TrEMBL record, chain A:
InterPro entries: AAA+_ATPase, ABC1_TM_dom, ABC1_TM_sf, ABC_CydC/D, ABC_transporter-like_ATP-bd, ABC_transporter-like_CS, P-loop_NTPase, Type_1_exporter. PROSITE patterns: ABC_TM1F, ABC_TRANSPORTER_1, ABC_TRANSPORTER_2. It holds the Pfam family ABC_membrane. PANTHER family: ATP-BINDING CASSETTE SUB-FAMILY B MEMBER 10, MITOCHONDRIAL, ATP-DEPENDENT PERMEASE MDL1, MITOCHONDRIAL. This is ATP-binding cassette, subfamily C, CydC. GO terms for cellular component: plasma membrane. The chain crosses the membrane at residues 20-43, 55-75, 129-151, 158-177, 249-267. It comes from Desulforamulus aeronauticus DSM 10349. GO terms for molecular function: ABC-type oligopeptide transporter activity; ATP binding; ATP hydrolysis activity. Residues 335-570 form the ABC transporter domain. The keyword DNA damage does not apply. It is a multi-pass membrane protein. The keyword Ribonucleoprotein does not apply.
From TrEMBL, chain B:
It is a multi-pass membrane protein. Keywords: ATP-binding, Cell membrane, Membrane, Nucleotide-binding, Transmembrane, Transmembrane helix, Transport. GO terms for molecular function: ABC-type transporter activity; ATP binding; ATP hydrolysis activity. GO terms for cellular component: plasma membrane. The chain crosses the membrane at residues 55-72, 137-154, 160-180, 238-264. It is found in: Cell membrane. Its main location: membrane. It comes from Desulforamulus aeronauticus DSM 10349. GO terms for biological process: cysteine transport. CDD domains: ABC_6TM_AarD_CydD (cd18584). Residues 336-571 form the ABC transporter domain. This is ATP-binding cassette, subfamily C, CydD. It comes from the Bacteria.
Length: 576, 577
């Protein structure tokens, strides 16, 4: 329930527009009631052969409601869509604002693309919260009030009867059916997930399936799951069909009961006979308002589930706290750490323990070690994606916790193994680093990153959209774009995080030459598990299980015959 | 909106559909009966001053009709769903079969997510088409006719009003609907692009932060969403007009009928009972047409999905004509010999492989070396019969490979792809893919040979730990060893191995290499090599460039030639040229 209230609060900035849309929805149904009841009155009255003049009001009324119905329907649709789109925009901004301070530290668990697309569709689901969850019951309540007032003009008995059937059709039936269908729904979700997983398997794993002759087996398996799904859907159809026909049944029973109750009143003269047809048509025309309520419960559950997932993310506290006082940026860029310790999970093992290192300005330091040794953690701490618990990191003699994270990141360029390129033009992707860059600056970095040949071959040069029309970038091209981006940023500190991993040997060499260009005149920190080309580094730090195991130059470390020497020997055996 | 091929599918369930339509007509008759009874009861009370007990019989009839109507409407939905269900499950299986028949190479152009979506959501979208739209098309034609049949003898004017407005509804629906639909569809495209943008921003959040651009995005997102709202509403303002016209036609003609009837009643040209009956029927007359309109969108989605489904089903299957089904003559010794084999992928004119010839002797290890795009993978795919050569011959022990049954031939081959795929299931089941009838002991033995038993035993549930999508994530090195275990279990005489390019850390790398050496021992091996250490072990090396074998021989011979091989090796070593 609290999720529901939070959701209402989230959409509340648009309450005025929503009320207008609800009012229009009410007028749409109201016009239909007006049209049919006035028509019934018109012909009932006419049957008593009055003069045509006496019918004029009714005739005008009939025509008015006939047009009003269509016009109100139009306006209602227009206004409610306007509200829906405003909501979507608001929801996106809200969610992004909540998410921005959390990235990437708090989102590590949700890192897979799957979960992110889940989030996006959750936000999409919520946009229906007004249109399909809030509005229909509000319209129904207004109609109920209208009709109760209407029937109370004739006999109080009728209002109770109407109220009873209205509530049965609008609330009790849909709720009952939903409760009954809940188990089915859950089974359906499970079977669907199973089917999805199987289909993903059979397409992504097709090579193995065919190479290992498993085609028949997997087809039978999918067929079996599909059969299960179909039988569940059959059961659901039985239930939903029942719900729909019960809805109609309730309406007609209401009509029937109103007749049975009114006929004696007509006989006794308590109700004028000319109104009998009006009372009957009042029922038929007003139950339109409860027709959509069964769906409302469905959308309510869907919205609440989506909201719960989103709230669970937005409720997370960011890991990094900003300093209260703004401080100035350091003017020298040597890096050193003192007794630096960090653990992702406060009680669990240290990801980094008691690290002491010093990189002079313009120095080149490599950090090596097996995966899980703590290399990426070091980068996360330097970029202040996480805050360390013990010790400290100094940049130009200043503790980085005193700096605004944004200012700190301005000083650091990163080229990582997996570079995220946005679905826009190559140019836009480069400009990310410096929106104000001139054409000359762009051409210069493109040239220095050895991208010019490649870009010239593209149909629209650097205005070509990435990923459009089947145009895909190779790993080497992606990395060179990342390098160009880093060149454009022109930050004094450079972090290379496995920047050439996953590239084949020839491409790796090409990318390395662009990286050499990038490293000129910057304080460089290179993280790698491949031990080639380390002779050029001023210093090598060997991490092992979060501890600094060794440090020194390539030559020194080889002479020491420790961990580095063993890793080097191993990699030589494999690669040569 | 009536798709020919979908109608072909509908024929298969015509019994159900006929039943659905008959039940719909039944409902139509019940509606008319209900209106007649209601008109009679009210008229008797209103004009003839009858009491409740006098009209009781009429009321009981009314109650009966009401109950029957509910029952029929329930049956209609259940049966309509049955019809759709049959078609859905048949099409889903047809799709899967077709995609699997295309094989990994021909299906490569299709994206996994899209295909899976087509087989699940796409197929589901057909339900509305078959269960609701198609019966409704028939009913929209039949029920108004049925009602006219009752109206015309009673009152010509009302009949004419109905008769002339009715065709206007489908007319406007088509006229405005098509155009508005086009606009609406375009808007939905923009909409999905917008959510793609949002997803892109979320995925790139870390990158945005590093460049200090993440806070700007709040404004960008708000601006894009708002622009979208404005343009969309501009379009919808017009698109909703179609709904306005439809609604207007139905309500105005109900109003016209009511006024016309009223005036005739005044002059006593029609009895009240008949007039009220007509008034009750007027909205019912338009209802099936309006329902058709409201199902138009769902049907549209169905037709769009169907187009995609048939598009995939129409992808031509690789030619298998003239291919034999002979059993593979094998005593565990395979001698493969290629003569001038060529292959061109469909849609390109550049051959991927040109006149390639080589011998693979029993027990020999042949390595394929060359820059990416040289044709190494094509050779593996040809040998696995994922594709058939466009020229030349591939022979096994003197028999043309095409004479053999593809499935039977693949039993002789263990294939280790570059990125082995782990299926959703236990580790044991994943290894068991190599030989489904294998016992757990055999699986464990294979895992031991692949150097995988240690990490598997450390998993929370050992061999029964679920892996794959949603299961425990295995590292690259672990997944590779599971794949090697598969190959050990299959124990095939020929191994085709596509080495991983991504570096593992040295310790893991060593384990994988050891396992591979064990696997290669005593088997005939074709190896797509990316590592010098494996290339050294080969008995014979084929150097490929742009689809041709440019050099072949042993390592030392090739080095001495100072050609492409020499250049490649230098690059691998990381030495300066």
């Amino acid at each position: 329930m609290s999720d529901f209230l939070r959701l209402v609060k989230l959409v509340s900035p648009y309450w005025q527009r929503m009320l207008w849309a609800v009012l229009l929805g009410f007028l749409t149904v109201g016009s239909n009631i007006g049209l049919l009841t006035t028509s019934a009155y018109l012909i009932s009255k006419a049957a008593l052969h009055p003069s045509v003049a006496e019918l004029m009001v009714a005739i005008v009324g009939v025509r008015f409601f006939g047009i009003a119905r269509a016009v109100f329907r139009y306006l209602e649709r227009y206004f409610s869509h306007d509200v829906t789109f405003r909501l979507l925009s608001q929801l996106r901004v809200w969610f992004y604002q909540a998410m921005e301070p959390l990235a990437p530290a708090r989102l590590q668990i949700q890192h897979s693309g799957d979960l992110l697309s889940r989030i996006v569709s959750d936000v999409e689901v919520l946009k229906n919260f007004y249109l399909r969850v809030l509005a229909p019951p509000l319209v129904a309540v207004l109609i109920l009030v209208l009709m109760i007032t209407f029937y109370s003009q004739f006999a109080v008995k009728l209002t109770y009867l109407y109220l009873f059937f209205f509530v049965v059709a609008g609330l009790i039936l849909p709720l009952g059916v939903r409760l009954r269908g809940r188990g089915l729904g859950r089974q359906m979700v499970a079977v669907r997930a199973q089917m999805n997983a199987r289909l993903v398997d059979s397409i992504q794993g097709m090579t193995e399936i065919i190479a290992y002759g498993q085609r028949q087996a997997i087809q039978e398996n999918v067929s079996q799951i599909s059969g299960k799904l179909i039988s569940l859907q059959g059961k659901t159809a039985v239930l939903s069909g029942l719900a729909n026909s019960l809805n109609g049944l309730t309406m007609h029973l209401a009509l029937w009961s109103i007749l049975v109750l009114s006929i004696p009143l007509v006989t006794t003269g308590e109700i004028k006979e000319v109104y009998l047809a009006v009372l009957a048509l009042g029922v038929l025309s007003s139950f339109e308002a409860v027709g959509n309520l069964p769906l409302t419960f469905h959308y309510l559950e869907e919205s609440l589930a989506a909201a719960k997932r989103l709230f669970s993310i937005t409720a997370t506290k960011p890991t990094v706290s900003n300093p209260m006082l703004p401080t100035s940026v350091p003017d020298s860029f040597d890096l050193h750490t003192k007794g630096l310790s960090f653990s992702y999970d406060r009680d669990k093992t240290y990801a980094l323990q008691n690290i002491n290192l010093a990189i002079p300005q313009g120095g080149r330091v490599a950090v090596v070690g097996p995966s899980g040794a703590g290399k990426s953690t070091l980068v996360n701490l330097l970029l202040r994606f996480w805050d360390y618990q013990q010790g400290s990191i100094y940049l130009g003699g200043r503790n980085i916790k005193e700096l605004q994270p944004e200012e700190l990141r301005q000083l650091i360029a990163v080229v990582a193994q997996r570079t995220h390129l946005f679905n826009t033009t190559i140019r836009e992707n480069l400009l990310l680093a410096k929106p104000t860059a001139t054409a000359e600056e762009l051409a210069d970095v493109v040239h220095r990153a050895r991208l010019d040949d490649f870009i010239q071959e593209l149909p629209n040069g650097d205005q070509t959209y990435i990923g459009e029309g089947g145009f895909k970038l190779s790993g080497g091209q992606r990395q060179r774009i990342a390098i160009a981006r880093a060149l454009l940023k022109d930050a004094p500190i450079l972090i290379l995080d496995e920047a050439t991993a996953g590239l084949d040997a020839v491409t790796e060499r090409e990318v390395m030459s662009a990286i050499d260009e990038l490293m000129q005149g910057r304080t460089c920190l290179m993280l790698t598990h491949r031990l080639t080309g380390l002779e050029r580094m001023d210093q090598i730090l060997v991490l092992d299980e979060g501890k600094l195991a060794e440090q020194g130059t390539h030559r020194e470390l080889l002479q020491r015959k420790g961990l580095y020497y063993r890793m080097w020997e191993l990699s030589r055996q494999i690669e040569q | 909106m009536i798709d020919k091929r979908l109608m072909g599918e509908a024929k298969k369930v015509r019994l159900y559909l006929a039943l659905t339509i008959s039940l719909g007509l039944c409902t139509g008759l019940l509606v008319i009966l209900q209106a007649a009874t209601l008109a009679k009861v009210i008229s008797e009370v209103f004009l003839n001053h009858q009491t409740l007990s006098q009209v009781w019989n009429g009321l009981l009839l009314l109650l009966g009709v009401i109950l029957l109507r509910a029952l029929v409407s329930w049956l209609t939905e259940v049966i309509a769903q049955r019809a759709a269900a049959q078609i859905k499950s048949a099409l889903r299986m047809q799709l899967l079969q077709h995609v699997l028949s295309l094989g990994p190479v021909h299906a490569r152009g299709e994206r996994t997510g899209e295909l899976v979506n087509l087989m699940t959501e796409g197929v589901e979208a057909l339900e509305d088409y078959f269960a609701r739209y198609l019966p409704q098309v028939a009913l929209a034609a039949l029920i108004p006719l049925l009602i006219l049949f009752f109206v015309l003898p009673i009152d010509l004017t009302s009949g004419i009003i109905l008769l002339f407005t009715a065709p206007l509804i489908p007319f406007f629906m088509i006229l405005i609907g098509k155009w508005a639909d086009h606009l609406t569809k375009k808007q939905w495209d923009i909409m999905s692009r917008m959510s793609a943008h949002f997803l892109d921003v979320l995925q790139g959040l870390t990158t945005l932060k590093i460049f200090g651009r993440s806070k700007d995005q709040v404004r960008v997102i708000a601006r894009i969403s708002d622009d979208f709202r404005k343009t969309t509403l501009g379009v919808l303002r017009v698109a909703f007009l179609s709904a306005l016209v439809l609604e207007l036609l139905a309500t105005i003609s109900t109003a016209l009928v009511a006024v016309a009837l009223g005036l005739r009643l005044v002059y006593d040209r029609i009895p009240f009972q008949e007039a009220f009956f007509l008034l009750l029927l007027a909205p019912e007359f338009y209802l099936p047409l309006r329902n058709l309109g409201s199902q138009f969108h769902a049907a549209m989605a169905g037709v769009n999905a169907a187009n995609r489904i048939f598009e995939v089903l129409d992808l031509p299957l690789p030619v298998t004509e003239g291919l034999g089904q002979q059993a593979c003559p094998s005593n565990g010794q395979l001698h493969i010999s290629w003569q001038n084999v060529s292959f061109t992928y469909s849609g390109t004119d550049q051959p991927a492989l040109q006149e390639c010839s080589f011998e693979l002797l029993p027990g020999q290890v042949v390595a394929l070396v060359g820059p990416s795009g040289a044709g190494k993978t094509t050779i593996a795919q040809l040998l696995l019969r994922f594709i058939e050569p466009s020229g030349g011959t591939m022979a096994v022990n003197g028999i043309s490979l095409q004479q053999l049954g593809a499935a039977d031939w693949r039993r002789q081959v263990a294939f280790l792809p570059q990125h082995p795929y782990l299926f959703y299931g236990t580790v044991a089941a994943n290894i068991g893919l190599g030989r489904p009838e294998a016992t757990l002991a055999e699986i464990e033995a294979a895992a031991k040979l692949a150097g995988a038993d240690r990490f598997i035993n450390e998993l929370p549930q050992g061999y029964q730990t679920p892996v794959g999508e949603g299961g425990t994530r295995l590292s690259g090195g672990q997944a590779q060893r599971v794949a090697i275990a598969r190959a050990f279990l299959k124990d095939a005489p020929l191994v085709i191995l596509d080495e991983a390019t991504t570096g593992l850390d040295p310790a893991t790398e060593e384990l994988v290499q050891e396992a591979l050496s064990r696997l290669m021992r005593g088997r005939t091996v074709l190896l797509i090599a990316h590592r010098l250490s494996t290339i050294y072990q080969a008995d014979h090396i084929l150097v490929l460039d742009q689809g041709r074998v440019v050099e072949q021989g042993r390592h030392e011979q090739l080095l001495a030639r100072q050609g492409l091989y020499h250049r490649l090796v230098t690059a691998y070593r990381g030495e300066s040229a």
